[in-house]
Amino acid sequence: MAEVKFYLKDPKSKDKTLIYLYFSFDGKRMKYSTGELIKPSSWNSEKQRVRFSAVGVTDINNRLQKMEEDISKIYRNLIIAEEDISASILKQKLDEHQSNKRQPKIDFFGFIENHIISVAPLRKKATITAYNNTLNRLRDYKEFKKKPVDFNNINLDFYYDFIDYLTTQRNFSKNTIGKHIKHIKAFLNEASEKGTNTTFDYKSTRFKKLTEDSDSIYLDKNEIGMLINLNLSFNKGLEQTRDLFIIGCYSGLRFSDFSQLRLENINNGFLKVRTQKNEDIVVIPVHDCVDTILKKYNNTLPKAFSSQKMNDNLKSLGKLAKINDDVEISKTKGGKRIKTYHKKHELIVTHTARRSFATNLYLEGFPAISIMKITGHRTDKSFLKYIKITPEQNAELLRTFWSKQIQNQNI
Asked: Where are the domains positioned within the chain?
């Protein structure tokens, strides 16, 4: 009786390890490398397949299933033909079979192009545009440097040289460069899962996404009130934009979520939403301001415009509300620290609503861990970088905390 089993080369490895096919027949056994790499934590030894939680699981499991069918068919054909059967003959036949199925080797650029096409139906248009931007920057780099760019030479030397090119030749900001590095690492991860890439320098801690703190603004309660109090009967588009923005200020949802709210998301005074970005379930009580807006629109929601149209309208709304404080913006661009100055209303965008929600709650003393349950931040560090409070505001929070301690001691 013949039997096919799959085992890991090193089941105790912390990194990826090869999957081997073992074919037992007539008291003998053939060992064959499938060429597939997987982390042991992603391997189900009982089912001898990749766990469904792993990246690329379907492709790998399909290839393992096809290989199992191939070796079984080869063995049956040899029996029917009454030919000698040995481990070496089976391995040779399977090698020939696999060689006939192999696709021509694809280079890094070809892989990225195919990957973008394959994920396009599953990703937002903006994400696909960002992927294509990274692909174009890689092509620009290759042309400028006259250097090969393929899987086998994407190493730390490439990493530092690519960053230098984006900094000195393209004058990009640190965060823009970081997004390109993030995409490159995502492409390489996908290629590694499919067995197309076998160079893993990109997994080094030094091959990291660059980032710097954003100087994005938030609106305080008074400024939000100034928007609420605007009489916008003369312009329905501005009025709908303002009302949607206020929903964001008192729900903490991203634009992609608060612009898509439906009545079924509202039940017993709570908003319940599965977020688009992380697919987390978020439950938020309906604030009085949100309830007022819902009633204003007969328990429906204001019409959502495109993100760009919303941002344009929000700047106009901020100007009408006289949100005119001077704001200094500082960021690294072209390797230099650049400072620019703006009126606050010029910087209002849809995401300002979410940042305002988190910052205002924090300043009022609401527990950070509870705010993070809504915003989706995983660590205190990432949350504290996200909210916008000045050193003076932080000092005032501490003073308020100490005052409450003294009051409690005197009770």
From this structure: 3-101, 108-203, 221-407
What pLDDT score does 219 carry?
95
Position 15 confidence tier, pLDDT thresholds 50, 70, 90: confident
Q: Which residues pair with 270 in a beta bridge?
A: 267, 285
State mean pLDDT over 43-71: 83
The pair of structure tokens assigned to 382 is 């990432």
Instruction: Classify domain 221-407 at the CATH topology level.
Output: hpI Integrase; Chain A (1.10.443)
Q: Which of 365, 402, 368, 366 is nearest to 382 (CA)?
A: 368
Q: Give the end-to-end CA distance of the chain in Å, rounded to a whole number.
A: 83
Report the alpha-carbon distance of residue 275 to residue 355 in Å, rounded: 16
On whether the 108-203 domain is CATH 3.30.160, my answer is no
Strand (E) or helix (H) holding 373 = helix 368-375
DSSP states of 214-245: -------HHHHHHHHT---TT-HHHHHHHHHH
Which SS3 state, helix, strand or coil, does residue 196 take? coil
Give the CA radius of gyration of the chain. 29
Give residue 171's region: left, alpha or beta (phi > 0; psi -120 to 50).
Answer: left
What is the spatial distance between Cα 95 and Cα 74, in angstroms, rounded to a whole number?
11
Q: What are phi and psi of 335, to 5 degrees?
A: 80, 5
Encode pLDDT of 71-107 as tens digits.
Answer: 999 999 988 888 888 888 998 888 887 766 555 568 9
Phi and psi at 10, nearest 5°, equal: -135, 90
Residues linked to residue 49 through DSSP beta bridges, in sequence order: 44
